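The data are quoted verbatim here:
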Amino acid sequence: MRDRRLGYRVVATGIVNSGKSALLSALAGQTGLFPSADVPGCTAKVTTEPVGPWLLVDTPGLDGPGNPLPEVLGEVRKADTVLWCHSLRQGELRPGELAALAQMRLATAWRTCFVLTHADDPPDPDRQAIVSGRMAAQLAEAFGLAMSPAGLMGRDPGIGPRRCLRPFDIVGVKAYWLAHSRSGEARAALLACSGIPRLRRFLDHLAAGHGPRSDARPPATSEVLA
C-alpha cells in the first residue's frame, strides 16, 4: 500500500524527448523545476519534487542509455497516477513503448493517463487527430484497451459493459508559459490551448482528501494559472 503521507504520487514516464520534465514543471507552475532540453538523456535519474498535494516523479527515458526500464517500471508500479507522455512529433507508439506498456500490465493501465505533448510545436489539429486515432487503435489492437470520449465506463451494443481508458490529454507547454505574458481573452485562449490547467484540475480531483505534505512546496502562486 502506498504511503499517503508522502503525497499523491504522480509519475511521468515515456521515451526520451517525450516532454515528461517540461510537463511536470508546467503542472507545478515552476519553470525549470524539472530540467529539460531537446536532447536525449537530459533526465538521467529518477527525480521527485513535492508540490502541494502531489509528489511529482520524473523518470529517465525508457529507451535511454544504461537500460533504465526496470527502474522506471518500479516507479510506475508505485504510482497513484501515471502520466504516459508521448510527443505528437513522434507519430504513433513505437515498438519499445508497446513493449514497456506490456510490462506495466493491465492493472497499471487504469491508473495511466496518456498525455500527448508538443501540441503547440507547431499547432496542428489534423496531426493531433491522426496520431491520437492511431494510438487508440494500437492500444485496442495490442492490449484490448478502449478509449472513451467520456473516459468512463462504456457500453458496446451486443457486447455489454466495457471499461474504457480516460481520453488522451493533449498539452502544449509553450502555450502555457506564453499565457503568462498575455491577459484577457488572449490569455484564456492560450490556457485552453495548453491543456495544462485541465490536467491539473484532474490531478487535484484525484488527490482530493489526501491533503498536502507539511513540507511540500506549494505551486508558485505567481505562475499557476486557473
In short: Confidence is low (pLDDT under 50) at residues 150-161, 211-216, 218-226. DSSP finds seven helices and nine strands in the chain. The chain has one domain: 4-207. The radius of gyration is 17 Å.
